[in-house]
Amino acid sequence: MLTILQKEFNAFLNSPVAYVVLGVFLVATGLFVWVFPDSSVLDYGYADLQTLFNLAPWIFLFLIPAITMRTFAEEKRAGTIELLLTRPLTDGQIIGGKYLACFLLALLALIPTLLYYFSVYKLGSPEGNIDSAATVGSYLGLALLAAVFAAIGVLASALTRDQIIAFLVAVVGCFLVYSGFDSLASVLEGSAAYYVSQLGIAAHYRDLSKGLIDSRDLVYFFSVVAVALQATRLALRSRNW
Protein backbone atom coordinates (compact mmCIF):
# COMPACT_ATOMS: atom_id res chain seq x y z
CA MET A 1 0.00 0.00 0.00
CA LEU A 2 2.87 2.37 0.83
CA THR A 3 4.36 1.71 -2.62
CA ILE A 4 1.05 2.62 -4.28
CA LEU A 5 0.77 5.71 -2.05
CA GLN A 6 4.28 6.87 -2.98
CA LYS A 7 3.71 6.22 -6.68
CA GLU A 8 0.40 8.09 -6.75
CA PHE A 9 1.65 11.00 -4.67
CA ASN A 10 4.74 11.42 -6.85
CA ALA A 11 2.56 11.18 -9.97
CA PHE A 12 0.41 14.02 -8.65
CA LEU A 13 3.44 16.19 -7.88
CA ASN A 14 4.86 15.50 -11.35
CA SER A 15 1.68 16.64 -13.05
CA PRO A 16 0.31 20.19 -13.39
CA VAL A 17 -2.99 19.14 -11.76
CA ALA A 18 -1.52 19.21 -8.26
CA TYR A 19 -0.08 22.71 -8.67
CA VAL A 20 -3.25 24.04 -10.27
CA VAL A 21 -5.30 22.62 -7.38
CA LEU A 22 -2.97 24.02 -4.73
CA GLY A 23 -2.69 27.35 -6.51
CA VAL A 24 -6.45 27.80 -6.98
CA PHE A 25 -7.14 26.90 -3.35
CA LEU A 26 -4.53 29.28 -1.92
CA VAL A 27 -5.35 32.16 -4.28
CA ALA A 28 -9.10 31.86 -3.67
CA THR A 29 -8.81 31.62 0.12
CA GLY A 30 -6.20 34.38 0.20
CA LEU A 31 -8.40 36.78 -1.77
CA PHE A 32 -11.44 36.16 0.41
CA VAL A 33 -9.56 36.22 3.72
CA TRP A 34 -7.32 39.24 3.07
CA VAL A 35 -8.43 41.22 -0.01
CA PHE A 36 -12.16 41.27 -0.73
CA PRO A 37 -13.70 43.95 1.56
CA ASP A 38 -16.90 42.02 2.30
CA SER A 39 -14.99 39.11 3.83
CA SER A 40 -11.51 40.46 4.64
CA VAL A 41 -10.21 39.79 8.15
CA LEU A 42 -8.62 43.24 8.11
CA ASP A 43 -12.00 44.93 7.62
CA TYR A 44 -14.02 42.49 9.72
CA GLY A 45 -12.80 43.80 13.05
CA TYR A 46 -12.52 40.41 14.76
CA ALA A 47 -9.44 38.21 15.09
CA ASP A 48 -10.75 34.97 13.64
CA LEU A 49 -10.53 32.88 10.48
CA GLN A 50 -14.19 32.12 10.06
CA THR A 51 -14.06 33.32 6.46
CA LEU A 52 -11.50 30.63 5.65
CA PHE A 53 -13.42 27.87 7.38
CA ASN A 54 -16.72 28.86 5.78
CA LEU A 55 -15.21 29.07 2.29
CA ALA A 56 -12.80 26.10 2.27
CA PRO A 57 -15.48 23.35 2.20
CA TRP A 58 -17.02 24.84 -0.96
CA ILE A 59 -13.62 25.06 -2.67
CA PHE A 60 -12.81 21.50 -1.58
CA LEU A 61 -16.12 20.47 -3.12
CA PHE A 62 -14.58 21.03 -6.55
CA LEU A 63 -10.85 20.71 -5.97
CA ILE A 64 -10.77 17.31 -4.27
CA PRO A 65 -12.83 15.64 -7.05
CA ALA A 66 -10.30 17.19 -9.46
CA ILE A 67 -7.58 15.33 -7.57
CA THR A 68 -9.41 12.00 -7.27
CA MET A 69 -10.98 11.81 -10.74
CA ARG A 70 -7.91 10.16 -12.28
CA THR A 71 -7.24 7.53 -9.60
CA PHE A 72 -9.09 4.62 -11.23
CA ALA A 73 -10.70 6.24 -14.28
CA GLU A 74 -7.31 6.96 -15.85
CA GLU A 75 -6.13 3.40 -15.15
CA LYS A 76 -9.22 2.06 -16.91
CA ARG A 77 -8.88 4.44 -19.86
CA ALA A 78 -5.19 3.62 -20.34
CA GLY A 79 -5.81 -0.12 -19.96
CA THR A 80 -3.39 -0.44 -17.02
CA ILE A 81 -6.03 -1.38 -14.46
CA GLU A 82 -5.75 -5.09 -15.22
CA LEU A 83 -1.97 -4.95 -14.87
CA LEU A 84 -2.37 -3.23 -11.51
CA LEU A 85 -4.96 -5.70 -10.30
CA THR A 86 -2.79 -8.70 -11.20
CA ARG A 87 -0.01 -7.46 -8.93
CA PRO A 88 0.43 -9.29 -5.60
CA LEU A 89 -1.70 -6.64 -3.88
CA THR A 90 -5.14 -6.84 -2.35
CA ASP A 91 -7.93 -4.53 -3.47
CA GLY A 92 -7.76 -2.90 -0.04
CA GLN A 93 -4.08 -2.07 -0.46
CA ILE A 94 -4.62 -0.56 -3.90
CA ILE A 95 -7.59 1.50 -2.75
CA GLY A 96 -5.84 2.54 0.47
CA GLY A 97 -2.72 3.68 -1.34
CA LYS A 98 -4.61 5.75 -3.91
CA TYR A 99 -6.97 7.18 -1.30
CA LEU A 100 -4.20 8.22 1.10
CA ALA A 101 -2.28 9.90 -1.74
CA CYS A 102 -5.34 12.04 -2.57
CA PHE A 103 -5.97 12.80 1.10
CA LEU A 104 -2.35 13.85 1.72
CA LEU A 105 -2.44 16.17 -1.27
CA ALA A 106 -5.56 17.83 0.17
CA LEU A 107 -3.77 18.23 3.52
CA LEU A 108 -0.82 19.72 1.66
CA ALA A 109 -3.14 22.48 0.46
CA LEU A 110 -4.08 23.31 4.06
CA ILE A 111 -0.55 23.64 5.42
CA PRO A 112 0.23 27.10 3.89
CA THR A 113 -2.99 28.48 5.42
CA LEU A 114 -1.37 28.12 8.85
CA LEU A 115 0.33 31.41 7.93
CA TYR A 116 -3.13 32.99 8.09
CA TYR A 117 -3.48 31.84 11.69
CA PHE A 118 -0.08 33.21 12.74
CA SER A 119 -0.80 36.49 10.93
CA VAL A 120 -4.13 36.95 12.70
CA TYR A 121 -2.51 35.88 15.98
CA LYS A 122 0.08 38.65 15.62
CA LEU A 123 -2.39 41.27 14.35
CA GLY A 124 -4.84 40.71 17.20
CA SER A 125 -5.24 43.39 19.84
CA PRO A 126 -3.91 42.32 22.26
CA GLU A 127 -1.57 39.92 20.46
CA GLY A 128 -2.93 36.36 20.54
CA ASN A 129 -6.55 37.51 20.75
CA ILE A 130 -7.87 34.60 18.71
CA ASP A 131 -9.87 31.54 19.73
CA SER A 132 -7.15 28.93 19.24
CA ALA A 133 -9.38 26.04 20.36
CA ALA A 134 -11.98 26.87 17.73
CA THR A 135 -9.22 27.24 15.13
CA VAL A 136 -7.78 23.83 15.95
CA GLY A 137 -11.26 22.32 15.81
CA SER A 138 -11.91 23.98 12.46
CA TYR A 139 -8.68 22.67 10.98
CA LEU A 140 -9.51 19.19 12.27
CA GLY A 141 -12.96 19.54 10.71
CA LEU A 142 -11.43 20.56 7.36
CA ALA A 143 -9.04 17.61 7.47
CA LEU A 144 -11.90 15.19 8.17
CA LEU A 145 -14.01 16.88 5.48
CA ALA A 146 -11.17 16.37 3.01
CA ALA A 147 -10.98 12.72 4.07
CA VAL A 148 -14.67 12.20 3.29
CA PHE A 149 -14.54 14.09 -0.02
CA ALA A 150 -11.45 12.10 -1.07
CA ALA A 151 -13.21 8.81 -0.28
CA ILE A 152 -16.28 9.85 -2.29
CA GLY A 153 -14.05 10.99 -5.16
CA VAL A 154 -12.15 7.69 -5.26
CA LEU A 155 -15.47 5.83 -5.32
CA ALA A 156 -16.70 7.97 -8.22
CA SER A 157 -13.48 7.29 -10.13
CA ALA A 158 -13.87 3.53 -9.59
CA LEU A 159 -17.35 3.61 -11.15
CA THR A 160 -16.32 4.94 -14.58
CA ARG A 161 -13.45 5.13 -17.06
CA ASP A 162 -14.13 8.78 -17.94
CA GLN A 163 -12.40 11.36 -15.75
CA ILE A 164 -14.94 14.10 -16.46
CA ILE A 165 -17.82 11.85 -15.44
CA ALA A 166 -15.88 10.81 -12.34
CA PHE A 167 -15.37 14.49 -11.48
CA LEU A 168 -19.05 15.37 -11.92
CA VAL A 169 -20.27 12.34 -9.96
CA ALA A 170 -17.85 13.17 -7.14
CA VAL A 171 -18.93 16.83 -7.02
CA VAL A 172 -22.60 15.87 -6.84
CA GLY A 173 -21.91 13.19 -4.23
CA CYS A 174 -19.85 15.53 -2.06
CA PHE A 175 -22.48 18.27 -2.35
CA LEU A 176 -25.29 15.93 -1.32
CA VAL A 177 -23.39 14.61 1.68
CA TYR A 178 -22.22 18.07 2.74
CA SER A 179 -25.25 20.25 2.12
CA GLY A 180 -28.08 18.01 0.90
CA PHE A 181 -29.21 16.78 4.30
CA ASP A 182 -29.16 20.32 5.70
CA SER A 183 -31.36 21.47 2.83
CA LEU A 184 -33.77 18.60 3.47
CA ALA A 185 -33.80 19.30 7.21
CA SER A 186 -34.73 22.93 6.56
CA VAL A 187 -38.14 21.87 5.25
CA LEU A 188 -38.79 19.56 8.21
CA GLU A 189 -39.72 20.40 11.78
CA GLY A 190 -38.91 19.19 15.26
CA SER A 191 -36.81 16.13 15.95
CA ALA A 192 -37.05 14.94 12.34
CA ALA A 193 -35.15 18.02 11.17
CA TYR A 194 -32.43 17.43 13.78
CA TYR A 195 -31.90 13.77 12.94
CA VAL A 196 -31.86 14.42 9.20
CA SER A 197 -29.30 17.22 9.61
CA GLN A 198 -27.08 14.86 11.62
CA LEU A 199 -26.83 12.60 8.56
CA GLY A 200 -24.94 15.34 6.70
CA ILE A 201 -21.39 16.58 7.13
CA ALA A 202 -22.26 20.25 7.69
CA ALA A 203 -23.74 19.77 11.16
CA HIS A 204 -20.72 17.82 12.41
CA TYR A 205 -18.32 20.27 10.75
CA ARG A 206 -20.03 23.19 12.51
CA ASP A 207 -19.63 21.45 15.88
CA LEU A 208 -15.92 20.93 15.31
CA SER A 209 -15.54 24.55 14.18
CA LYS A 210 -16.70 25.65 17.63
CA GLY A 211 -13.80 23.78 19.20
CA LEU A 212 -16.07 20.98 20.42
CA ILE A 213 -14.24 17.78 19.53
CA ASP A 214 -16.92 15.18 20.20
CA SER A 215 -16.29 11.47 19.66
CA ARG A 216 -19.67 11.20 17.89
CA ASP A 217 -18.48 13.63 15.21
CA LEU A 218 -15.23 11.70 14.76
CA VAL A 219 -17.11 8.39 14.50
CA TYR A 220 -19.41 9.94 11.89
CA PHE A 221 -16.54 11.07 9.64
CA PHE A 222 -14.63 7.79 9.95
CA SER A 223 -17.82 5.83 9.25
CA VAL A 224 -18.57 7.75 6.04
CA VAL A 225 -14.98 7.22 4.86
CA ALA A 226 -15.19 3.50 5.65
CA VAL A 227 -18.51 3.11 3.80
CA ALA A 228 -17.22 4.96 0.72
CA LEU A 229 -14.01 2.91 0.58
CA GLN A 230 -15.92 -0.34 1.04
CA ALA A 231 -18.21 0.70 -1.81
CA THR A 232 -15.09 1.35 -3.91
CA ARG A 233 -13.89 -2.16 -3.11
CA LEU A 234 -17.22 -3.60 -4.23
CA ALA A 235 -17.01 -1.55 -7.44
CA LEU A 236 -13.60 -3.05 -8.21
CA ARG A 237 -14.77 -6.56 -7.36
CA SER A 238 -17.66 -6.18 -9.81
CA ARG A 239 -15.17 -6.73 -12.63
CA ASN A 240 -15.25 -10.42 -11.75
CA TRP A 241 -19.04 -10.69 -11.88
TrEMBL record:
The chain crosses the membrane at residues 12-35, 55-73, 94-118, 138-157, 164-181, 218-236. The gene is gldF. It is found in: Cell membrane. It comes from Hymenobacter ruricola. Keywords: Cell membrane, Membrane, Transmembrane, Transmembrane helix. It is a multi-pass membrane protein. PANTHER family: MEMBRANE COMPONENT OF ABC TRANSPORTER YHHJ-RELATED, MULTIDRUG ABC TRANSPORTER PERMEASE YBHS-RELATED. This is Gliding motility-associated ABC transporter permease subunit GldF. Signal peptide: none annotated. Its main location: membrane. It holds the Pfam family ABC2_membrane_5.
